[in-house]
Specification:
By secondary structure, the chain is mainly β. It has three helices and 15 strands. About 15% of the residues lie in helices and about 45% in strands.
Length: about 250
């Protein structure tokens, strides 16, 4: 039986090509991992960490171990709306724990999963929701919008009131005079130049929120993506909260 060397070479090259493609496909996944703690640095075990798409659907998730560590492996690269962390038996609306032991959620917004990421959620009883960073067109100012929600205030509304909205207004946000806040960009604390009260309204519900201007120029530097971290306290009820938000400059031509 004659062996066609040329055919063997072609077969070998074809197998190498297939192997390379399979390796490339295997590499087209990223990992999101970290450690969930409270504000005293204690790990939070049995905490659900979920990666959310634009429809608020959890597309990937993991649970923390006894040391608070989690790992969401094999994440499809792309941009995701948020990553959230919550321990369900502590969550305000569902928990049967004593009121002082109930918590809200941690949120990280605008997740850019184009490489392996480390996100270390830290949460307590103040939830910073809907955080968005933007640079007003034609300016170099960095603006951050966030809506803080208080666990203590949330527990004033029972489930029926929450569901039926009988009184027309449900607002468990924080007053400006009780809102102690810090801002960090890429790990460095930055000055908050101004902070304004806002009202977020949907249907007949109203929630208090804040718009902050940070002393940081982001639009003309060489860094494409900035990580913004907002850490806050509701001094009225001694509640703390933190979140993350990724900001990317517009790529204008």
């Amino acid at each position: 039986m004659m062996i066609d060397v040329r055919q063997l070479k072609k077969l070998f090259l074809w197998m190498l090509l297939i192997a390379g493609c399979m390796t490339g496909m295997a590499q087209q996944r990223v990992k999101i991992s970290g450690c969930v703690t409270d504000f005293d640095g204690k790990p939070v075990s049995h905490c659900a960490v979920m990666l959310m798409d634009k429809h608020f659907h959890a597309v990937d998730s993991a649970s923390t171990d006894s040391a608070g560590y989690y790992c969401i492996a094999n994440v499809k690269p792309g941009r995701y709306m948020a990553l959230t962390a919550v321990r369900w038996d502590e969550y305000v609306r569902f928990s049967k724990l004593p009121e002082q032991d109930r918590r809200l959620e941690f949120w990280a917004w605008n997740i850019m999963a184009d490489k392996d990421l480390t996100i270390n959620p830290r949460y307590h009883r103040l939830e910073l929701y809907g955080t968005t960073a933007f640079c007003p067109t034609g300016t170099n100012a960095l603006m951050v919008y966030t809506r803080p929600m208080s666990a203590t205030e949330a527990m004033k509304y029972d489930e029926k009131l929450y569901r039926d909205n009988n009184n027309g207004v449900i607002d468990y946000s924080v007053k400006l005079e009780d809102f102690k806040v810090q801002a960090f960009v890429d790990g460095q604390e930055v000055k908050i130049l101004s902070i304004q009260n806002m009202t977020e309204q949907y249907g007949n519900q109203k929630m208090g929120a804040f718009l902050m201007m940070l002393d940081y120029k982001v639009c003309n530097d060489d860094t494409d993506v900035h990580q913004i971290r907002i850490t806050a306290e509701n001094t009225k009820h001694h509640e703390k909260g933190e979140n993350l938000c990724n900001f990317q400059s517009a790529d204008y031509k």
